[in-house]
Specification:
The protein is mainly α. It has a domain of 40 residues. It is built from 2 helices and 2 strands, in the order H-E-E-H. It has a two-stranded antiparallel ribbon with strand order 1-2. The radius of gyration is 33 Å and the shape is elongated.
């Protein structure tokens, strides 16, 4: 007998001794709600992290193993800009840094021109 059952029985005995009518009813267990059971991205004994691939996870049609947005595994073909690695990563990074710097300078120039226009209109 568990401690909680023993406590319940002692309370029932005290109430019966005090002349109160006691009835004990066992409530049914709550059923699982949607999303509470075993799901793909929960471990549940699989012994691996969310979004990892097992031996049984195979791709058909050249699809790529892509894990996106922390929502578990998605076996969807990766297309678009990130589907292939660029040929020269260092040159691509240098071009991107130069473009970002030029964008910052252009935005600063535009803010300066807006301030000049506002000062002249007063």
């Amino acid at each position: 007998m568990t401690t909680s059952t023993a406590n319940l029985l002692s309370i029932a005995a005290d109430l019966t001794a005090a002349g109160k009518e006691v009835s004990i009813r066992r409530l049914p267990t709550r059923k699982m709600r949607k999303g509470e059971g075993m799901s793909r991205n929960a471990q549940h004994g699989a012994g691996r992290a969310m979004g990892s691939l097992g031996d049984a996870d195979t791709c058909a049609g050249g699809a790529s193993h892509a894990v996106g947005a922390g929502k578990g595994l998605t076996i969807t073909r990766v297309t678009g800009l990130g589907s292939q690695m660029v040929a020269d990563l260092d040159a691509t990074r240098a071009r991107a840094a130069a473009q970002h710097a030029a964008d910052r300078r252009a935005a600063a120039r535009e803010r300066l021109m807006d301030r000049i226009d506002a000062a002249l209109s007063i």
